[in-house]
């Protein structure tokens, strides 16, 4: 079953990160045009381990880093602040 789960995103054209099994589909997070390194095109990033296909080279990021879901049942000033930051980020991306 796990091999079949990896084949679906692969068939849809997603890059796969091999940080675990089954491989995780990587998300497009930016674009690189680096003539020195001969790297051009989309930059992919693993939402689990953070590896990206630009490696050490700078690139133009077009999507914010994915953030683990917050526990909204927790209380306190830190949780309230994190929820506010998450809300602002979601509004900015909309």
The ordered H/E elements are HEEEEEH
- The number of strands is 5
The level of helicity is 25-40%
Low-confidence stretches: none
Secondary structure class reads alpha+beta
Number of helices: 2
- Strand-residue fraction? 15-25%
Question: How much is the average pLDDT?
Answer: 76
Shape: flat
Q: What's the Cα radius of gyration?
A: 17 Å
- State the separation between the terminal residues, measured CA to CA: 35 Å
Short description:
The chain contains two helices and five strands, in the order αβββββα. The chain has 94 residues and is an alpha+beta fold. Strands 4-3-5 form a three-stranded antiparallel beta sheet, with no helix packed on it.
Structure description:
With about 90 residues, the protein is of the alpha+beta class. The protein has 2 domains: about 1-65, no CATH class; about 65-94. The protein has 2 helices and 5 strands. It has helices spanning about 1-10, 75-94; strands at about 15, 25, 25-35, 40-45, 60. Strands 4-3-5 form a 3-stranded antiparallel beta sheet, with no helix packed on it. Strands 1-2 form a two-stranded antiparallel sheet. The radius of gyration is 17 Å and the shape is flat. The model has no long low-confidence stretch (mean pLDDT about 75).
